[in-house]
Structure formats: structure tokens, C-alpha cells
Amino acid sequence: SNMKKKSTKSTTITGRRKATARKSGTKRLARNKRLSGHKVVDSIIDYFTRHPREVVNYKAVAASLGFTTMSEKQFVVRTLESLVEQGMLTQVEIGRYRYQVGAEMLEGVFESRRNYCVVVPDDESAEVVISDRNNPEHALAGDRVRVALFPLKARRTRTGQVVEVLQRRRSTYVGRVVVTKGFAYLHTEDRALDSRILLPREALAGAKNNDKAIVRIAHWGAREPEPTGEVVEVLGAAGDNNTEMHAILAEYDLPYSYPEEAEEAARQIPSGIPSEEMAKREDFRDVFTLTIDPADAKDFDDALSWRKLEGGLVEVGVHIADVSYYVTPGSVIDKEAYERATSIYLVDRTIPMLPERLCNDLCSLRPNEARLAFSCVFVLNEAAEVQSYRIGRTIIESNRRYAYEEAQQVIDTKEGDDAEVILSLHSLAQLLRKRRFAQGAINFSSQEVQFVLDAEGRPVDVSARPHGTANELIEEFMLLANRTVATEFGKKQRNSNGDAKTFIYRIHDLPDGDKLNQMGAFIRRFGYQFKNATEASAISKNLNAVIEASLDKPEATLIQTMAVRTMARAEYSTENIGHYGLAFEYYTHFTSPIRRYPDLLVHRLVARYMAGEGSVPQAEYEAYAQHCSDQEQVAAKAERDSVRYKQVEYMSTRLGKVFDGVISNVAEWGFYVELTHSHCEGLVPMRLLNDDFYDYDEKNLALVGRRYRRKFTLGDTVRVRAIHSDFERRQIDFELVD
After folding, report:
1. Cα–Cα distance measured from residue 544 to residue 443, given in angstroms and rounded to the nearest whole number
2. Contacts for 473-477 with beta carbons within 8 Å, 24 or more apart?
3. Using H for helix, E for strand and C for coil, what is the string for 347-360?
4. Residue 508 to residue 570: CA distance in whole angstroms
């Protein structure tokens, strides 16, 4: 009996000692190592990535963590077994493990989803899910990476680890420098980089608190939560107009100055036109010619000539600046123009594709100055039907420069020195326009805003930019020229074997079916009939019917916006699929070589094929087309950001005022309102809708109150008060005024 008691007591003491040992081990783990369970897992994975081909004993793993007690080693074993279950490790034999990464590698683009990250492989195979712990190289959205795959388990998605960042989406970041007493950092609104960048004092390069700067990441070690960087360039004080415009350009790696080498090359170009060059060209200097452009335009790259012919016919020449005469392939100017690929139009400035001497002087079709042009000349009857056309190099001299407003006044009043010419061109353009829509073109009318700026670049007024029939006059003849050139050199002219010659087209695919159905459901809520269709002609007919029926109604702009959102993106390609939005079988960009590099390429191809030369390599020109498409999108984003910044700046002086507007978008965090007069857009945050708890109805693009069923949806007219302007996020906050 005594022995039993003693034995029981001994067992109890032993159990307590084990429990105490486990507690002390856990305390020591927390106190000395400061490693949570999650961090232990990270450390173990780090250990195996440093020994990717070795078979490792669990004791070596424990030793690498500084774990010595039995309870700590058991914790390591349990963690290793868990990693085996997840497919990250394989158990070679009891207690011995090997990393499973490395047998299969692939490359792709790292992308961020709402709650997780993936790599989209280059080979178009299934996405690879990447957890935070399996991204030790700190890959960011848009980076090209190499991934090592984990073994695929039954009914599981592919998983892996980023083992190398092959190419960063961007090498520098733009933001606001914050200098505190203890340290400094860069605050950036770049959504891909969900972190500030630490800046050592010696890396500030003179940047002060609240300066905007460009920063390069210098170091970002594995498992380090924040990168360390260095200032590359100080842009200036935040809030300064030049600083903010340069910051927008720098965010997209766009230039804000022109290289001196290219400027000097442009200055060396003779201003005179050699007589032998004139002799090669058709001379239009005695034919009445005019330009119609925005009032503030400096580069006039298109002009129209007009003269009567016998039998009621009219000759209209579409004359385009012959940039290809001055900019030769491979030259300093050409290389710079190709890199830019487009001019960029910010609110207060233009970042030109070409040096100023070319775009504003030698290639600008200014009045009373002889200029070289590439022309598409049409003979049309009174019904605006093309009887014949010719394409070739010309020399012209503009007689008059009109602003759109001046030409519009002539059209409206039917009076003016050149009324006969302008009214004839107007009549022909309207007939071309009517026929185009009858053939299936979609009647889009984009709404642009224009700012009135003071001497410091601050906006004092903003409104919708007027778009009248004078604009349509120019648009229709440019469309006709672009279509004709594409048809001539894409369809009619062929290689000796009968194949089409390589050409650059402006293409536009059919709308996305799901988006089209969603838009149809949205339009029906306004009482419009919108029939589902799959054929291109039927879709465009339905869209045009709704757009026409909504004109001069509050929902008109919203319906236009929804229609645009369903559309595919227009782009450049050597593979022609036609242009759906314009309903053209063949279409290109020929009419703006001063501001678009694809137009310059098209001019060169036209000259080459007119001279009887063979086709150019398609793969090479497809790469050119893709680059130009990419740069066009980047420039468009910068332009939109400059508009948003100026809208925020404009509204910042009007906080507390009440405005009427229309709900332009709905999201789970609130709804956006576009103001009626200024077209500034701002957010009514969900947190300010405090009369109820609102749910986001994604299908119907609405917020719906749970208790009172109040609904906020696209197209609703609301009254709001401006309460906050955030310059860094370029966002305005509104509150609802009942």
C-alpha cells in the first residue's frame, strides 16, 4: 500500500515536471527567441531554402532555431510533419526531411488578387498560388518571376514559391518624403507596394520633409517587412504644380524633359525645302487649304484642301505632316520618338513625342508657310460617295488656321470669308457620318473636361469641353483617310505570291459578352429596350438605338460610360481583325504622325510599298505595334491622373459647398458621384451612410439598406457636400445631403 502511494506520487511529480518543462520551454521560446508559431514556420522554410538539395535531420533544424529542450524539438517535428502534409517537404525516412521545391520551375507574372497572390505562367498553364511565406523575394504585382512548384496534391490548386524576381515592374517609386526625429521614409500610394520605403539619412540626397521624390529600392532582405531605399531625384515641394505634374509622369516612368542630344539633332535640320524634293511632289500650294484645331493647339498635323470640279464633284485633300521626311529610321530623334511612342497631354502641358523644332515648326502645317505633306486626296460627289482617290507625297501651304469655335460659328451662322468651303466640307462630313452609323458604327461621344488655370497653374473653373459639328467635320475626313490607306495597303496591294504585305492596323474586337449582358440589364432599368444579340451588326444597332433615345436625358452620359466599359480595348497590330466600334473592315492610324509613332510607321510603309519594295518582317513590326499599344495605355493613365489631381485641387477650395450630381459607380466601400457642372468625381464612403447598414449588390451595381431598403444605384441623382480632398490619393470625399 505504501509502495503504491509512493509510486503514484512519483508519477504525479514526473507529470508535473513534464508540464513545467513544456511551459518553461514555451516561455523561453516566447521570451528568448521571440518567435511565434508562424515565425517558426517561416524560419524552418528559410532553413530548407538554404539547403534545397540536402536531406536534413529534425535535430539540425531545431539547432538552427536554438531549440534544445525535448518539448521544443517535438514542436519542430510537429511543424515539419505539417509541412509534409502541405507538400512543401517530403519525409525521406523517420526524422529526416527534404525540401520539395526545385524539381519543376516555371516563369510568369506575379499578380495580386483580393485575398491572395498568384503567378500567371508564361506557358498559359494554371495559375500558381503563392502564400506570403513563399514569397521571400518580395515579388510585387506586375513583376516577372521564377517559381518553384510544390508537389500537386489531390484536388488541390498548384502552389509554389518565388525563387527569383527576374524583372521588376518598376525600379523606382514616387512619393512624399517624411522626415521625423528618428528616421525618414517615402510614403507612396502605389498599390502594388503595400509598404513605406525606409530612407537612411545619408540616402536623402537633400530631400526635405514633405518633398516629392523618386526613390530606388536599394535593399530588401528576405523576411524584412520594409525595403530600404535611396533618393534618386528630388522633384520639389508637394503641392507645387510643376512638382505634382512631374510626379505623375515619374510614376509611369514617363519623361518630363527632352534629351539635349535629340533637341540638337532637330536644330541641325535645314528649314528650307530643296527644289529637287519639291519636284517629286504634287503641288497643292495654289489650292485653298485650311486647318481646324483646338484654340490652344501648337502642332497642326492635318489640313484639308478643297476645290470644285466639273459635274458637281468636289476634290478634298486630307494632308498630313510628312514627319517621315525629317525623321529617318534609327536616328537619334527616331529612337527617342519610338521610346515615347506618343505625345502626352496633361492638363497644363504637352509632353511631345518629337522635339519642339519639329512638332511646333517644321512639321506643323502653319498658315502661309510651305510644308511637306503625305496626302490622301478624294474626289466625291454630292452624296459624299468617293469616286476616286490617290495617295502620295505633296507640298501644301495653308491659307487659314481656324479654331474649332471659329469654324463652328461659320457652320451655325453660314457666314464668313470661307463659308462656301467650310459649309461644303461640313455637309460632306455629315453625310459620311450618317452612312457610317448606318453601316454599324457605334455612336460614342466621349465627354472631356477642360480647365481654366491661373498663372500658377491652379484651376479656377472646370467644365465639359464642347464637341460640335466642327469637330465632327475633322473627325470624318480623318476616319476616311485612315480607312482608305488601310484598305489600299492592307487589302489591295499584295506581295508577288498573293499574300498581304505586313501593315500596322488599328484594331478593335467585339464586346465582352458577360459585360454586354450586364449593361443590358442596367439599361433596362431606365425603361429602354435592349435585346440580347451575338452578331456585331445587331449589337451595334441595339446600342445605337439606346444611345440615341437617351440623348438630352440625365442618364445619357451614364449609358455612354456603361457602353464604353463593355468594349474591348482598341490597339495596334499587324494581324487585322477589323475595327468593331467604327464598323470598318480595314482601319489604321495615318493622320497624326507628330503625336503618334504608329502613324509615322504607317507613313514609312506606305512610301516603301508605293516604291514597289517587298514586305517588311511581320514579327518585328508586331513588336513595334505592341510597344505602341502599351505606351498609349500608360500615357492615358497619366493624363487621367493629371485630370483627377486638378479636380481635387479645384474642389479643395470649395469644401463645405453643396453640389448636384449623378451616381457614376458603385463599390463595396461606397458610391462615386460625378458633379453635374464640373464633372468632378468623388466618393461617398460607406461609413458616412449612417442611417442604415448597407449591403453591396454587385449584380445590380447598388447599395441596399438592410432595414429601410433604401437603394443607391447607378444613374441616381443626388445632392452632396464636399468634405475632404486627398491630393496624394487624388480623391474627393463627399457626404450625402438629404
Report:
1. 6
2. 473/292, 473/407, 473/411, 473/422, 473/425, 473/426, 473/429, 474/292, 474/302, 474/304, 475/429, 476/428, 476/429, 476/430, 476/432, 476/433, 476/436, 477/304, 477/316, 477/318, 477/425, 477/429, 477/432
3. CCCEECCCCHHHHH
4. 5
Could you tell me the pLDDT band of residue 153, with boundaries at 50, 70 and 90? low
Dihedral over Cα of 485, 491, 493, 496: its sign: positive
Q: Which residues of 598-629 are buried (b: 16+ CB within 10 A; e: fewer)?
A: bbbbbbbbbbebeeeeebbeeeebbebbebbb
Neighbours of 166 (CB within 10 A): 12
The whole-number average pLDDT for the span 485-501 is: 89
pLDDT band at 232; cut points 50, 70, 90: very high
This prediction has a pTM of: 0.83
Q: Is 4 a residue whose pLDDT tops 80?
A: no
* Intra-chain end-to-end CA distance of the chain, in Å: 86
What is the distance between the alpha carbons of residues 456 and 467, in angstroms, rounded to a whole number?
A: 28
Radius of gyration of the chain (CA): 33
Stated as kind and residue range, the H or E segment containing 719 is: strand 717-726
Comparing 32-41, 92-101, 421-430, the range with the smallest average pLDDT is 32-41
**Each residue of 530-588: pLDDT tens digit?**
777 777 778 888 888 888 888 877 777 778 877 887 888 999 999 999 999 999 999 99
Q: At what angle do helices 70-85 and 58-65 cross, to 10 degrees?
A: 120
Distance CA 593, CA 616 (A): 20
Whole-angstrom distance, CA of residue 286 vs CA of residue 639? 40
Show the cell assigned to 287. Answer: 489650292
Tell the residue number behind the cell numbers 476616311, with chain if given.
Answer: 480
Count CB-CB contacts under 10 A for residue 107.
Answer: 15
- Pairwise CA distance, residues 533 & 714, whole Å: 23
Nearest by Cα to 130 from 36, 122, 138: 138
Instruction: Collect all residues with Cβ–Cβ distance below 8 Å to 326 and sequence separation of at least 6.
Output: 269, 333, 358, 362, 363
* Residue 305 to residue 318: CA distance in whole angstroms: 7
Helix ranges (H only) for 86-213 are none
Q: For residue 167, which of 195, 196, 139 has the smallest C-alpha distance?
A: 139
Residue whose cell numbers read 521544443: 72
Q: Residue 457 burial (CB < 10 Å; 0-12/13-18/19+)?
A: middle
Q: Which residue matches cell numbers 464636399?
A: 722
Lowest mean pLDDT among 111-125, 349-363, 545-559: 545-559
